[in-house]
Amino acid sequence: MDEEQANKGLAVDFSQIFLNGFSNFPVNDIEKINEFVKHLSVHGFENLPGRNKPSDNVPTDDHEFIEKVKYAQDNNLHHYHIGIPHFDQSGEHGDWTSEYILHYMHLDSSIKIVDMGSHPPFSLPAEEYLK
Amino acid sequence: MAVVSNAATLKFSSHNKDESTGMPFNFDLDRMKNAVESPSHRAPTNLSTEEFIEWMKSKQTKD
Prior knowledge:
The complex is a heterodimer of chains A (about 130) and B (about 60).
Chain A: H1 3-8, E1 11-15, H2 16-21, H3 27-43, E2 52-54, H4 65-74, E3 77-81, E4 100-106, E5 110-118
Parallel strand pairs in A: 1-5
Antiparallel strand pairs in A: 2-3, 3-4, 4-5
Chain B: H1 2-6, H2 29-37, E1 40-42, H3 49-58
């Protein structure tokens, strides 16, 4: 790994509540999470196949729009389409979508994975999941 | 600004409001401090799926 490539890499942390609940995940799902971790550690966010975006893009007709936007922004919440159960590849590589998304907090040089959930409807992880 | 000076004593609630604007907010220094200081576990890289599962198991708690 050259220096430029190393600088792209991100460390990945997991919240305790996420780890406590992972036993319920199928092995195939864990494998996809592991691939995500590996990719981030080497390439950072570059060339990820799935859609990756901030979670403050709340529908404007949501009756808790302001609260949800601030909650997402205050906690630097983002989500990644992890490809579970599969990717919808009708879009471009890098914008593939899936039913399940990984919620994470984006910190300076790391991320903290806090929850995984299906959508729609889109919901933000509860506060206790961020600990 | 009232929001900043009172932030450390406020608890998260969608009912919190900025007194000057009436806008709801959820900024809470205690909550953010807890989030930063809360335990998290750094994933080792380049593990096989089986090794990754074992690592996750090793970090589980009974809570």
